[in-house]
Amino acid sequence: MKEIRLVGKGGQGVVIAARILASALILEGKYAACFPMFGVERRGALVSAFLRFDGEPIRQRDQIYEPDCVLIIHPSVKNMAVTLKGLKGDGIVILNGEQPLSSESHPALRSAGNVNAVKIAMEEIGEPIYNTCMVGAFARTTGWISLESLVTTLSDFFDGRVLEKNIKCLKRGAEEATTTVITRG
After folding, report:
1. For domain 2-179, which architecture applies?
2. DSSP 157
3. Hey, how many other C-beta atoms are within 10 angstroms of the C-beta on 119?
4. Which pLDDT does position 101 carry in this prediction?
5. What pLDDT is attached to residue 47?
6. All structural domains of the chain with their residue ranges
7. Across the chain, how many H-helices and E-strands are there?
8. Model pLDDT, residue 102
9. What global pTM score does this model have?
């Protein structure tokens, strides 16, 4: 089973990103379960969402304490202690930002992906809502899900012009994401 923690701020689509990933994984024939965790429910407050997926039914319903991957949707939360807490050995982190994480970020970090999702969202949508861009970066960095499944799933969440803009963000997130493999000496 793979476990993913998504971290960001309220109003930027953290929970929708988890739901998009879960729907696309189910489309690919996997089992998936996702759920949010809110602190203060207001725009700009810290928000986490959790996602589990596997080839077998998922019975576990508790919070994810040791994720295989952390998707950091808002760049300002990357240095918060809770963000990378419990990252499993060979962990993957995908960061919304221009600079990748370094090997000093966490001892379990194996690979780090990053993409400037803020720039892409502003160019494509005109607003700093970059969840679909980060989902695209997740697909490229992990290889756990196909871009085609994600594009197909977006029509369950958006329509019309908003759908077109989010498809562009998703594809650019995948195309422009870079991955750094962390080696330990």
Report:
1. 3-Layer(aba) Sandwich (3.40)
2. T
3. 16
4. 64
5. 85
6. 2-179
7. 6, 7
8. 58
9. 0.90
Give the integer Cα–Cα distance in Å for 19 and 1. 17
Other CB atoms within 10 A of residue 1 CB: 12
What integer pLDDT is reported at residue 104 of this predicted model?
Answer: 59
Q: CA-CA distance, 141 to 128, in Å (whole number)?
A: 22
Token couple for 151: 């594009």
For residue 129, which amino acid is it? I
Average pLDDT per consecutive 10 residues, the chain (185 residues; last block may be shorter):
92 91 97 81 75 94 91 82 83 85 65 92 92 96 96 96 96 93 65
Least Cα distance to 135 among 39, 69, 182, 85 occurs for: 69
Neighbours of 69 (CB within 10 A): 22
* Model pLDDT, residue 9: 85
What's the Cα-to-Cα distance from 125 to each of 3, 19, 44, 98, rounded to whole Å? Answer: 29, 20, 19, 19
Q: Which pLDDT belongs to residue 89? A: 83
Reduced to 3 states, what is the DSSP secondary structure of residue 52? strand
State the DSSP H helix or E strand holding residue 147, giving kind and residue range, or none if neither.
Answer: helix 147-154
Length of the chain: 185
Q: Residue 156: left (phi > 0), alpha (psi -120 to 50), or beta?
A: alpha
